């Protein structure tokens, strides 16, 4: 806008000077030059506006792409966290099952050992009774 205003002011000044001190041919040349200059300014201004619009469109596209990437990454992180939680629950369940199996095995082993000890004690008592009976003559 400032460029257009400046161009218009320069053009007006040149026309005034041209009309007051120049011939008709010089005036026409000046008008033609001013028209060309004004057209060039108009064209360059239009190109600048178009470029600014393109930049704004590109920025909006990049922002949308970045937002989509952020949502995708957040979704992937949530999925990974859910998978990790499921894996943790499975591992804890497996450990609990293993601990239960180990406790059952230990209880069975202790029961077997107690039975074996009781059998050994009974055998020893029987042997002692037999020896006593033998010594006593029975």
Automatic annotation (TrEMBL):
Keywords: Signal. Residues 59-138 are annotated as: Disordered. Residues 108-118 have a biased composition (Low complexity). This is YtxH domain-containing protein. The keyword Signal applies. It comes from Parahaliea aestuarii. Residues 126-138 have a biased composition (Basic and acidic residues). Residues 1-23 form the signal peptide. Residues 95-107 have a biased composition (Acidic residues). The keyword Signal applies.
């Amino acid at each position: 806008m400032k460029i257009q205003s400046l161009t218009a002011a320069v053009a007006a000044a040149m026309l005034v000077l041209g009309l007051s001190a120049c011939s008709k041919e010089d005036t026409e040349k000046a008008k033609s030059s001013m028209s060309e200059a004004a057209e060039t300014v108009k064209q360059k201004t239009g190109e600048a506006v178009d470029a600014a619009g393109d930049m704004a469109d590109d920025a909006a596209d990049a922002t949308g792409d970045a937002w989509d990437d952020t949502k995708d990454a957040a979704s992937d992180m949530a999925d990974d966290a859910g998978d990790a939680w499921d894996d943790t629950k499975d591992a804890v369940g497996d450990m609990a099952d293993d601990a239960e199996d180990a406790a059952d095995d230990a209880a069975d082993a202790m029961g077997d050992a107690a039975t074996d000890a009781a059998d050994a004690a009974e055998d020893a008592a029987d042997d002692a009774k037999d020896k006593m009976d033998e010594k006593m003559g029975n």
